[in-house]
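This section describes the prediction task in plain terms. A model, or a person checking by hand, is given the sequence of a single protein chain and must write out its three-dimensional structure as a string of C-alpha cells. No templates, partner chains or ligands are provided. The sample shown here is typical of the held-out split.
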Amino acid sequence: MAKTVEEINQKIREGNVVVVTAAEMKDIVEELGPEKAAKEVDVVTTGTFGAMCSSGAFFNFGHADPPIKMQRVWMNDVEAYTGIAAVDAYLGVTQLSESVEEYGGSHVIEELVKGREVELKATAYGTDCYPRKEIVTEVSLEDVNQAVMVNPRNAYQRYNAATNSSNKLLRTYMGTLLPNFGNVTFAGTGEISPLNNDPEYRTIGIGTRIFLCGAKGYVIGEGTQHAPPYGTLMVKGNLKEMKPEYMKAAYFPGYGATLFVGIGIPIPILDAEMAKFTAVRNSEIETKILDFGVARRDRPVVRKVTYEELISGRVEINGEEVRVSPLSSFYMAEKIMKELKRQIERGEFLLTAPVDRIPTKEVFKPMRQREVKVVKSVMVEAYTISPETAIEEAARIMMDKSINHIPVVEEGRLVGIITSWDIAKAVARNRKGAVKSIMTRNVIYTHPDEPVEVAARKMEQNNISALPVVDSRKRVLGIVTSEDLSKLIAR
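The expected answer:
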C-alpha cells in the first residue's frame, strides 16, 4: 500500500485526515506494526526548538528621498550586511550591538516580530543616482517592503554533546561547561526532531512546506555543514507572519547572541517504510560527547551516547555520574507539534512534495588552511647603533653593509630607527652630531612569530619600508623589509 502527498492533501481538504504527533506515532507503530500504522495514519508532525545561530533575515527598506545606496547599515546599532543592493540588507542573529552589551541581531528580529520599532541608521559614499550619504529613522515590520527569514543552517538531525575536561570553566556555544567533567550539555529534540523521522529525506526536501516560527515556511535546500546523520536544513519564511512565542532571542555569556527558532515539519506517511522511520526511539539515536577542554578542531570523543541517556539527565563519564542539561526546549517542540497537528486537521496547512531531494551522503570538510609564514622566517640580521653614534658613522655603515635601515638601541633595547632618507636629509641640511637628533623615536616594530601578512599591513598603513623585529623586552632580533616580503611573494 502506498499513498501520495496529493491524496493526503485531499483528505485534509475533506476534513478526514488522520494526524498524530511524532511522540504519539511511536506507540502506534509498536502496537500495530509499520504496515497497519501506515494505513491508519496520514501525517506525523515533528518539532524542534533550540538555539540556531545560523539564522537571519533579509530586509528591503524602500527608497528614501533623496535616495541612498546604503554602504553600511545598523538596526538598533547592530550592523547588517549591505553588499546586495541599494536598500537591501541581511541581518544575522549573531551580529552584536556596537553599543549595548548582551544584545544582537536576534534581539532586533525578536523586537520587530513583537511589533516594535527599531532605529535604522545608514551611511553611504553618494552617487549621482543615490546622492544621499546618511539617514537615521525608525522602522517596523509594517514599514519595510519585505522581511524574509532565511536561515542557512537549522534543524540539526542530531548534535554532538559537550563536556569539559580542563580545570577551568568554559563559556561556549554549547553553554557554560564546568571544569573537570562537571556537566554535559546537548542540543536537539531526539525522536521528535524532524530529520530523525525522515532520515532518508524522502519527504523533506527542496520545496517542503514547514512550520517556521509560527508562519508557513519552506525548505530551500540542505543546510550548511550538512553531513548525514548530522543533517541540516536551509529554510525561509515571511518574518511578517511569524509569532514571537515561537522564537526567542538569547545571549550565551562568553559566546554571544543567538536565536531560538521553532520548526515543525509534517511527515506524510506514504508507506510502511515512512511509518517505520517515524517510530524511531531516543534509544536508537546516537551521538558523541566531545571534550571542549581540548582547544582544537577535532575535539576528542569522550564517549558515544544515546539521546535516551542524555534526556535522562545523567550520563556516566570515567565511572562517575555527570549531570546533563538540554539546550533545546522539549516543551516548545511538543507545543509546535501539536499546533501543526491542529492546523492540518483544520485544513489550514497543506503538505507539499519536494521538487528535489536533499543529499543523503555528504562529508563535512574542515577549512583548507595554508601554512602561515611568520616574520622570523623572512627576517634578516639587523645592524644596530647607539643614540650617540655620529651621523657620519651611520652613513658609512649603511654604505658598507648596503642597507637602508638601522635600529637604534640603548641598554640593549630599541629606542629609535634611522633610514637612508634620514641621512640624506641630514647631509642636505649640513647637520652634524649624533643620530639621536635625527632618528625616529616612535618606532613601529614586529615580533618573530607575527604573521608576515600582519607585518606587511603595518608597513602599508604606516607608509614605511622596514620593521625591526623585537622580543618581549624590545631587544632587537633582526629586521624585515618590504624587499624581503616581495621576495617571499615572488617565491
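For orientation: Residues 330-345 form the longest helix (16 residues).
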